[in-house]
Write a structure and sequence with these properties.
Helix content is 31%, strand content 19%. By secondary structure, it is an alpha+beta fold. The chain is globular.
Length: 91
C-alpha cells in the first residue's frame, strides 16, 4: 500500500481486481467510510427499496472476502438469483 496514494486512487486500483459476479448486486462504486478509525468500503445493495449496506474493512486479512455480500444477496435477491450469478464465474 502506497502511503501517498489517495483513497479514491486506491479504490480504483482495488476495483480492477473485483471480478466476482456478486458485485453486480451492489451499486458500482462503494463509499469509503471510517468506523472507529478503521477505513472500510461500504457496498449499497442495488435492489429497489433495499437500503442495506455491507461494510468491508480494509485492515483485515479477509479484506477481499465477499461472504457478507453473498449472505445479503441470498436474503434480498434469493438463492436462485445468487446461484445463477455465481454460475457465470468471475468477470
Amino acid at each position: 500500500e502506497d502511503p501517498a496514494e489517495s483513497s479514491d486512487a486506491e479504490l480504483k486500483r482495488l476495483m480492477k481486481d473485483w471480478g466476482s459476479p456478486i458485485y453486480a448486486f451492489f451499486e458500482p462504486t462503494p463509499r469509503i467510510e471510517y468506523h472507529d478509525s478503521r477505513r472500510c468500503h461500504v457496498f449499497k445493495c442495488a435492489a429497489r427499496g433495499c437500503n442495506h449496506s455491507v461494510r468491508r474493512y480494509l485492515d483485515k486479512k479477509d479484506a477481499k472476502s465477499t461472504g457478507n455480500m453473498r449472505k445479503h444477496v441470498k436474503s434480498c435477491w434469493g438463492e436462485e438469483a445468487l446461484q445463477a450469478a455465481m454460475a457465470t464465474g468471475n468477470t
